[in-house]
Amino acid sequence: MKQELDQCYGSTAYSEFHGGIAQSKRDDELEHWKRGDSRILIATQSAGGHGLTLNNAAYSIFYADSYKYSEREQAEGRNHRIGQTRRPTYISLCCEASIDEKIATALYNKENALAVFQKSVNQYRKDALKDMAVKLVKEL
Of 16, 17, 62, 138, which has the fewest CB atoms closer than 10 Å, so is most exposed? Predict the structure, then answer.
C-alpha cells in the first residue's frame, strides 16, 4: 500500500502509526499528521490504546477489520472526541466471498466474528455427521 501511496501522492503524504515502529517514531508520525504535514494516517486498530484522539480525520478506511466488535467501536470512537468539527465517514473494504464478509456481518450484528465462524463450523460438522448417520442407516 505504501508503494501505491508514494506513486500517487509522494512519500510525505502519509504518516504511519502501528506496532511495527518504535513508540517515539509513532508519536512523531502522529504529530506530523495532526499538524497537517501529511494527509493520510496509516494505522492499525489496536495501536494507540484507549486514549488516542484522531478527530482530525474526516474519513476512516478500514482495510483489515478486527474480529472484535469492541476494537472496531473503539477505533471509530477515536474520531468522535472533543474538538471534532466534521461528521466522520467510515468505509470498510470487503472482498466478496471471503472471510471479510463474515467479519463485516459479525461487526454489523455486533458479534464476535470468531464466535460466528465457530458456530458455522460446528453447524457444518453437525450436518456432516447427520449425513453420515443417514448413509450408514441406509446401508444397514
Answer: 138
Which whole-number Å values give the CA distances from 54 to 12, 42, 45, 119, in the listed order? 19, 12, 12, 35
Name the pTM for this structure: 0.66
Question: Residue 69's CB: how many other CB atoms inside 10 A?
Answer: 18
